Amino acid sequence: MNDALRILQRAAPVMPVAHFHSLEHAQACAELFAEAKVPTVEVTLRHPQAWQMVKIFKDTMPLAKIGVGTVVNRRQMLRAADEADFVISPGFSAELSILARKTLTPYIPGIATATELMAAMKEEHSVFKCFPAAAVGGVALLKALSAPFPDVTFCPTGGISLANYQAYLALESVACVGGSWIVPSEEELQKDRDSFLAMLKDLYKS
């Protein structure tokens, strides 16, 4: 079993796709996730202080696997190899794939079409982020791709919500889904932290 597949299986059923508005927001979410025993988190590089946020999660959640998402270039990949447990991209890059192998970094590339899937499989990938899942066909697309590519595993992300995530998880090819809907805003943390904590504990109960 490869490391990327282990990451997705560990993350099940939902990997938080986390974009924070401030370091304080990141710290509060890290503390919440630690209390709920969330096993895996993807911290996206969408904020100027994103790398500091990755460190916050690594320090606050030492037992979890902390990944870096939205990795799109060589510089980001090399830094993520040093500072995170795994890397996720919105698309596929052969260059990033080569760097991941050289640095022994679990890498989950993004795909949206059969052509992209075949290009990534040529670089010996079998575990993928499907992004943006809902916009490119959702459950129907993943069902269609699973027929000609029975040995691949997906983490669909983009447009996933409380209302539809179980439909994705029902697919044999889906190990987990990625979702921002389980990452509370600063306002939600202040108003209803206990409800989020209860939801997370229920989601990740074994």
From TrEMBL:
InterPro entries: Aldlse_KDPG_KHG, Aldolase_TIM
Origin superkingdom: Bacteria
Entries under Gene3D superfamilies matching the protein: Aldolase class I
Keyword field contains Lyase: yes
Residue stretches in coiled coil: none
GO molecular function: (R,S)-4-hydroxy-2-oxoglutarate aldolase activity; 2-dehydro-3-deoxy-phosphogluconate aldolase activity
This protein's pathway: Carbohydrate acid metabolism
Keyword tags: Carbohydrate metabolism, Lyase
EC number: 4.1.2.14, 4.1.3.16
PANTHER family on file: 2-DEHYDRO-3-DEOXY-6-PHOSPHOGALACTONATE ALDOLASE-RELATED (PTHR30246:SF1), 2-KETO-3-DEOXY-6-PHOSPHOGLUCONATE ALDOLASE (PTHR30246)
Family under the similarity heading: Belongs to the KHG/KDPG aldolase family.
Subunit description: Homotrimer.
Record's protein name: Bifunctional 4-hydroxy-2-oxoglutarate aldolase/2-dehydro-3-deoxy-phosphogluconate aldolase
